[in-house]
Amino acid sequence: MTSPLYNIVGTPLFGISLTLVAYQASQVLFQKSNQFPLLNPVLIAVTLIITTLKLGHISFDQYWQGAQIFSFFNGIVVVALAIPLYRYAKEIKQCYLEILIAVFFAALIASFTGIILAKVLNLDDIILRSVAARSVTTPLAILITEVVHGNSALITLFAILNGICSSIICFPLLKKLSIENEAVIGLTAGIAASAIGTAISFSKSYRMGSYAALGMILNGIFSAMTIPVLIKALAT
Amino acid sequence: MQGLILLFCFQIAGQILQSLFFTMIPGPLIGMLLLFFSLNLVPKLYKRILPTTNIIFKHLMLIYIVYGAGLVNYESLIKDNGSNIMTIVAIAAAITIVLTGLISKRIKP
After folding, report:
1. Count of other CB atoms within 10 angstroms of residue A236
2. Of A76, A142, A181, which has the smallest distance from its Cβ to B11's Cβ?
3. Are A210 and A129 in contact (CB under 8 A)?
4. Shortest CB distance from A156 goes to which of B64, B96, B103?
5. FRET label pair with A14: which of A154, A176, A197, A234, CA 20 to 30 Å apart?
6. How far apart are CA B35 and CA B68, in angstroms?
């Protein structure tokens, strides 16, 4: 315990350095694997950090001293979402009302199915409160989950799992429903699979990506308004 | 730096409005809506803020890594509920995608 390394563990330097190293390592692995979905960089980096804390018998609070600096920027990211919202809303000039109505109901369905399934499977209250916002873009999902007294670590996990799962099944499912309209596919991918769905949509076409970005952000806005009401009505 | 200061101003404005009126809507979200309306009024704000947001969005994952590391406190919860969690995520995703696709089918262009 007298090793010089343990003196650093007590300072913010430790949490910051560990986060940066884990981030860099996960990025390299993800790129080397040709962006294989299950090697999601956040998942890998989190595993690296947790393993380090366990092996070194370091408490989460010690890590958090430095790491919280990064979490502080989450609010700014949410504000900054106004930039893509403005940009892609400008590209899409027609059908505003239809889009708004569709996203509103989609947001309700997404959070409702999560909450109801958690209830049916009789899961912990904290899971029920943390699962609702899983398809919302992560920065906003964390804020919404804090409002309804869920847990920010759990919603981060749910958002990643949902992003991977939805982005894999979204495009084949829509094909099965013989939906071929790029606008509808993009909007659905953005709502269901947020950032990953938007990235894949942009890789297919700029127009599909624009709808996905719009769907993702509007879904977040509507979810912030509806999830607190749903949780109040459905949580015990 | 100018862009960052502007973003912080909108966040602070959002937080203040939240504490005054809307307790259920997160302050930064109000800040985002304020910025969105400001962009429509003053389009040149876009170019001022864009370089900052590009940098922020590029390293977004750093933020979720530190939140995700909090899972270390929920090890047993995840071990006990792992399969249930996967079930919920998969079934809810399928339902959401199918219904959203069918609802938005009516969008024309």
Report:
1. 5
2. A76
3. no
4. B64
5. A154
6. 28
Identify the CA nearest to A143 among candidates A199, A44, A72, A89.
A72
Per-chain mean pLDDT for chain A: 91
3-state secondary structure chain B: CHHHHHHHHHHHHHHHHHHHCCCCCCHHHHHHHHHHHHHHHCCCHHHHHHHHHHHHHHCCHHHHHHHHHHHHHHHHHHHHHHHHHHHHHHHHHHHHHHHHHHHHCCCCC
Between chain A and chain B, the number of residue pairs with CB atoms below 8 A apart is 278
**pLDDT averaged over consecutive 10-residue blocks of chain B (109 residues)?**
92 94 88 95 93 88 90 89 93 96 82
Nearest 10 degrees: Cα torsion A88, A89, A95, A96: 150
pTM, two decimals, is 0.89
ipTM above threshold 0.85: yes
With CB atoms and an 8 Å threshold, state whether B69 touches A60.
yes
Label residue A188 exposed, middle or buried (CB < 10 Å: 0-12, 13-18, 19+): buried
Nearest-by-CA chain B residue for A54: B72
Look up tokens 């947790």; give the residue. Answer: A50
Range scoring the smallest mean pLDDT among A84-98, A130-144, B22-36, B94-108: A84-98
Is residue B72 within 8 A of residue A95, CB to CB? The reply is no
Q: With H, G, I as helix, E, B as strand and everything else as coil, classify residue A57.
A: coil
**pLDDT-based confidence at residue A92 (cuts at 50, 70, 90):** confident
- Look up tokens 């007298």; give the residue: A2
In the block, residue with structure tokens 């429509």:
B40
